[in-house]
Structures are given as C-alpha cells and as structure tokens.
From TrEMBL:
Entry-linked NCBIfam families: sigma70-ECF
Coiled coil: none
Domain of life: Bacteria
CDD domains listed in its UniProt record: Sigma70_r4 (cd06171)
Domain RNA polymerase sigma factor 70 region 4 type, residue spans: 91-144
InterPro entries per the UniProt record, alphabetical: RNA_pol_sigma-70-like, RNA_pol_sigma-70_dom, RNA_pol_sigma70_r2, RNA_pol_sigma70_r4_t2, RNA_pol_sigma_r2, RNA_pol_sigma_r3/r4-like, WH-like_DNA-bd_sf
Protein name as it appears in the record: RNA polymerase subunit sigma-24
Gene3D superfamilies: 1.10.1740.10, Winged helix-like DNA-binding domain superfamily/Winged helix DNA-binding domain (1.10.10.10)
One Gene Ontology biological process: DNA-templated transcription initiation
Amino acid sequence: MRRHAAGVHRLAASMVGPGAADDVVQEVFISLHRSLKTFRGEAKFSTWLHRVTLNACYGALKARTTVPLSQEPEPRAPHSPVHRSEQAQVRERLAAALNQLPRDQREAIALRELSGLDYAEIAQITGAELGTVKSRIARARAALRAWLTNAGVTP
C-alpha cells in the first residue's frame, strides 16, 4: 500500500477530483485486499491495480451527478500570493479541461501523464489496441492544448 498509494491517488484525483480521491483510494485498497487471492498473475500487478483504480473512479463518478473542478492544496514552497493564485488558476483550468475530454481520452492521458505508464501498459489496462491508445493520447493532448489556449493559459 505504501508503494502504490501516491500513484493511485494521483490517478483518482485526475479522474474524480482531489476531494473524492481519498475515498476512491480507500475503496481501491479494500477491493484489492478482498480480491488479492484471485489475482492470477497473468498481467503485472500494476496493470491490475490501475484497472481496479479506474473501476473505482467510474463507480464514484456514477454515484454523483457532476465532477467538481480540482482544488488541490497549495504547494508548501514559499511563493508569493500572486504566484500561488496563478498556480491555482492553472490547476483549476487544467481540471476543467480534463473534465471536457471524452472518457477514453481522459483515461489514457491520465494513465500516461499522471501514472507514467507506457503505451503498452495502457493498452493492456484499457483493452484497446496500441495504435488506439496512441491516438487517444494524441487527441487528448491536442484538445487540452486548444482548451487551455482558449482559456488563456500559455505554455
């Protein structure tokens, strides 16, 4: 649990928002504990963990009607209030942009950029072909870039 909790939380926060991510993480590890003896080892443990996490995220999303914008805690580094405010606005806009993506693109980009998985692992988790995963990520990046540019966020 100590090894994987941070990654599970990052993925959950990207899918359901940081406010609900703690509940999803708890649900994931309870689910893993209950079903660990059924893990057949046909895939890597991390692949199974990500699939369980995504399923828990979808369950949490079904349980509510709207996905809130990200409101992650501010970093503890000593920055000026103006810089903190700008960072919070960028995070909020990024969360809003992620929420606009279709489910398959949001899932693929979260697994790639937040969990750091390679394309083959994402394909195995999602059950999509490798080329499909690549195109989903490319489309998600393009959509995020366009959405953020229109929202006034510059790289």
